[in-house]
């Protein structure tokens, strides 16, 4: 897979803090280092079992392109991510279950913070796995905040998802506690459960180490939501231009389920992208540049002049 001609530069990040429902939220910024005007502002939304920096600003020696934030910052975008409450450097009290709805609240708080600091809205928003549900819920509630919405590794009704079928067997355990422990074995299972061999051999261990440096447990809210409360998003209420991204071997995102979701999206500026050789965690895969390039193409698509 050929990258474009611009090299990826490791970018200096800036740490911020804001609040969501009165609780602290960690926000991480990597501004554009590209030449010319800023091409857009991206907000990345993480999933159930890892905080934001390992997911979107993965640091691998000699491979700045391992960070999707650095990759897009090098191509003219201002990039932002945040830890949902319950994760990483955000508030992690026992009163936070970190549901999909909670994550959507956090996304709105961070969006407001970004715009208040002078960024031009509405934002380009990407979410992966339960982060896609968080992002979609945010976009459904606040359509004026999102110009383009990218939903990667998402589930809609849960039909055709073997991973969720297995998780439902443990629903009593998820409901019985606020948090679940995570360790090296669990993190490796994310890479091996769908199709062993798809993960990038230089990304896997740094990713795991960087996740576990921030958290030794994760909140149960998204697991409970995805096992018992789907569907959580109404595609017919998503006004933004939307792309649905689905890895070839993803065990959570059922193809027919997502196609049914896609058909109901009302904005004709929409796209469904299959990603060859990719499992659930797109940005840590051997084929990660496929995901990057698909997302770049969607975020740089010209506005439509004719609307019919």
Automatic annotation (TrEMBL):
- Per UniProt, the ranges with Basic and acidic residues bias are 1-18
InterPro entries given in the database record: AB_hydrolase_fold, Hydrolase_4
Taxonomically, the superkingdom here is Bacteria
Q: Where is this region: Disordered?
A: 1-21
The residue ranges of the Serine aminopeptidase S33 domain are 67-153
Keyword entries, A-Z: Hydrolase
> What's one GO MF term for it?
hydrolase activity
Q: What is this protein called?
A: Alpha/beta hydrolase
According to its UniProt entry, this protein's organism is Aurantimonas marianensis
């Amino acid at each position: 897979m050929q990258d474009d001609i611009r090299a990826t530069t490791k970018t200096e990040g800036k740490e911020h803090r804001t609040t969501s429902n009165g609780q602290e939220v960690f926000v991480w910024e990597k501004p554009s280092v590209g030449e010319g005007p800023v091409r857009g502002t991206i907000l990345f939304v993480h999933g159930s079992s890892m905080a934001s920096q390992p997911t979107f600003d993965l640091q691998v020696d000699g491979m700045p392109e391992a960070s999707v934030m650095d990759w897009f910052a090098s191509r003219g975008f201002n990039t932002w991510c945040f830890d949902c409450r319950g994760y990483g450097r955000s508030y992690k009290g026992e009163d936070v279950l970190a549901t999909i709805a909670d994550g959507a609240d956090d996304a709105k708080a961070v969006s407001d913070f970004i715009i208040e600091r002078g960024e031009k809205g509405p934002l380009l928003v990407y979410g992966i796995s339960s982060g896609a549900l968080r992002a979609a819920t945010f976009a459904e509630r606040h359509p004026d905040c999102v110009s383009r919405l990218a939903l990667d590794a998402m589930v809609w009704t849960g039909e055709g998802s073997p991973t969720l079928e297995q998780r439902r067997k443990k629903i009593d355990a998820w409901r019985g506690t606020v948090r679940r422990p995570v360790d090296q074995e669990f993190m490796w299972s994310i890479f091996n459960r769908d199709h062993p061999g798809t993960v990038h051999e230089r990304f896997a261990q740094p990713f795991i180490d960087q996740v576990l440096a921030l958290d030794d447990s994760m909140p149960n809210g998204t697991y409970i939501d995805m096992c018992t409360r789907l569907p959580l998003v109404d595609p017919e209420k998503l006004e933004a231009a939307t792309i649905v991204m689905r890895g070839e071997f993803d065990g959570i995102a059922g193809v027919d389920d997502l196609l049914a979701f896609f058909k109901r999206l009302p904005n004709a500026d929409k796209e469904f992208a299959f990603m060859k050789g990719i499992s659930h965690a797109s940005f840590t895969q051997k084929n990660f540049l496929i995901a990057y390039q698909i997302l770049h193409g969607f975020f740089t698509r010209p506005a439509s002049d004719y609307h019919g």
